[in-house]
Amino acid sequence: MKRRSKKNSMPRVLGSMLLLSLGATLAPKASAMSEPCVYQNYKILDVWKHLNTERHMAIVIAHRGWWGSHNGPANTCGARNDRASGDPENSIYAVTDALHGGFEAVEVDIKMTRDGVPILMHDYTLGRTTDIYQGSGQRKFDPYGQMHNQPQGFNPYVNQRNWYGDLEHHFLLSPDRSRVYNQHIPAFAQLLDQYRAAETSGIIVLDVKDRASMQEVWRLMNDHRDSHGSLARNWVAVKFNVSTYPNPADLEADLYKHADPHNNGSQEPFLGIPVLTNNMLDKFHNLIDIEKNYMTKDYTLGVEVNLNTKNGRLQNAYNVVGQYRKPVGIFNPIADPGAWDGDGQNRAFFQNTGQCCYRLWSVAYGDNTVSRWDWSFLYGNGWKAFDFITTDEGGKMIDDLAAKGLRWDNNAMR
């Protein structure tokens, strides 16, 4: 495995030259990480697929990577990385540092540019996390401008801008938005290239919101390999809302355009994670039937059921996953740094347009309360309600799970 050197990060001008093409990889970044702590992909997946029957193990997925002020794991498989990473969310370093530093999986968000390039970006707009204002002649986007009746600044939609000749030259902002960081806006293909170049191992989970993005990431997953020659489809899983694909036949039709989504004996099948949320119950009265259609698919790695509270509106959906002996996951919402103050279900998040803000209780969609923020709702000493958990506090959660006897298979993933 290649370790990142102690050299200084690349200067901004040099970075522009190095990353003009999708095939370019990142220069080394200064790192204070302890010795590399890396899990093996096939071992992670073997543990993951049996989580439903393993009482003392939960998988943690680092949401948007290891970024900002969030700490890494204090002591997992020998690595001590209980420090903040400082990297921007959804950056290449946030992914590779996590997978070299004690995390078994990371999740990144995918958005599509006007010219059809999938990039790593949480928001549908560019103002909150990038320097898109530079060269535009317009002011930097202010996420709080609207609430203060002030000009908001430049905040174009991702799908209104091209990658080639435009976004490929722009940079991410630091997590506190105070400065331009030394990392470009990353294309998904660049992440795959860097994963190979850095001899990385670990599961990448994509959060994909539309069919065009699904088709393109699947094409890239069947065209990129890691340093051992394994196709990305063997170590990249894709989360998708069942509202995007209420019929599995539509998903498979999109995937078949580039490769057989089922196991052909030499590759993993498509590693899919259907996602269910409360608001889908209002759109699909047959949501449980839709869910059941995915339970028998060989490519269903697990199902994320965002149950807000015990006996909430999605309780039946949660029960179905257990009946089919599939792993069940959940998203644990951690308040966005810089958003409004508040705790519990009053914690706040930036909207997907980059504007501030909304409260967790506002997305209860028919439940009386939202408990997903509370780790005691997700697991406790020697017991777990969910098999895999996506959270921005992945390092702290890994440590907490270990302390509660819920990381027994940690070494089995090495």
Please, could you describe this protein's structure?
- The chain has 414 residues and is an alpha/beta fold.
- The protein has a single domain (12-413), classed as Phosphatidylinositol (PI) phosphodiesterase (TIM Barrel, Alpha-Beta Barrel), CATH 3.20.20.
- 22% of the residues lie in helices and 16% in strands.
- The protein has an 8-stranded parallel beta barrel, surrounded by 6 helices.
- Helix 8 packs parallel to helix 9 (315-323).
- The longest helix has 11 residues, at 211-221.
- The two termini are 13 Å apart.
List keywords for this structure.
globular; 11 helices; 22% helix; alpha/beta; two-stranded antiparallel sheet; single chain; 414 residues; TIM Barrel; 15 strands
The CATH topology corresponds to TIM Barrel
Shape assignment: globular
- Count of structural domains: 1
What structural class should be given to the helix and strand makeup?
Answer: alpha/beta
- Just give the CATH class: Alpha Beta
Beta content? 15-25%
Q: Could you give a short description of this structure?
A:
This protein has 414 residues and is an alpha/beta fold. It has helices spanning 12-18, 41-49, 92-100, 188-197, 211-221, 248-256, 278-283, 287-295, 315-323, 375-378, 394-403; strands spanning 59-63, 105-112, 118-120, 171-173, 180-184, 203-208, 236-241, 271-276, 303-305, 328-332, 348-350, 356-359, 379-380, 383-384, 388-391. The protein starts with 11 loop residues before the first helix and ends in an 11-residue tail after the last helix.
Produce the secondary structure layout:
Blueprint lengths: L11 H7 L22 H9 L9 E5 L28 H9 L4 E8 L5 E3 L50 E3 L6 E5 L3 H10 L5 E6 L2 H11 L14 E6 L6 H9 L14 E6 L1 H6 L3 H9 L7 E3 L9 H9 L4 E5 L15 E3 L5 E4 L15 H4 E2 L2 E2 L3 E4 L2 H10 L11
Parallel strand pairs: 1-2, 1-15, 2-6, 6-7, 7-8, 8-9, 9-10, 10-15
Antiparallel strand pairs: 2-3, 4-5, 11-12, 13-14
